[in-house]
Design a protein that fits this description.
The chain has a domain of 78 residues: Winged helix-like DNA-binding domain superfamily/Winged helix DNA-binding domain (Arc Repressor Mutant, subunit A, Orthogonal Bundle). By secondary structure, the chain is mostly helical. Strands 1-2 form a two-stranded antiparallel sheet. Strand 1 and strand 2 form a beta hairpin. The radius of gyration is 17 Å and the shape is globular. It starts with 12 loop residues before the first helix and ends with a helix. Helices cover 58% and strands 10% of the residues.
Length: 121
């Protein structure tokens, strides 16, 4: 597994939130858990482009940052569920605001993203 060689810069709130939420799928994982998709297989169906391995790594990091909890039920086959912590629930309004901003600026954002992708090829 990757081991960081330098300590992260944690001098302001943006540094801190970047450290906690950095990861392609973390914001979506938090959103979908909030929406009631609690099992790993449900989360995988919501984010089919992500590999199971990457989702598991990012779920573990969210758990380490105390944004979610994982409960493992003692049944066969094993069953696990994720839930937002009280701390994690405080991020939902922020994620919602970001999503709304994205919706309001959808055409412009799509245009600049596609333009950037085309210039790279």
């Amino acid at each position: 597994m990757y081991e960081r060689k330098t300590l992260p810069n944690l001098h302001c709130g943006l540094d801190l939130i970047g450290e906690v939420l950095y990861g392609k799928w973390k914001i979506r994982l938090l959103w979908f858990i909030n929406e009631g998709h609690l099992r790993p297989s449900e989360l995988q169906r919501q984010i089919p482009d992500a590999s199971r391995r990457v989702l598991n790594i990012q779920l573990k990091e969210l758990e380490e940052h105390e944004l979610i909890t994982k409960k493992i039920y003692p049944v066969v086959p094993p069953k696990a569920e994720y839930r937002l912590t009280e701390f994690g629930q405080t991020l939902i309004p922020v994620i919602s605001a970001l999503g709304n901003w994205g919706d309001e600026n959808e055409d412009r954002l799509r245009s600049v993203i596609l333009k950037r992708l085309k210039s790279k090829s």
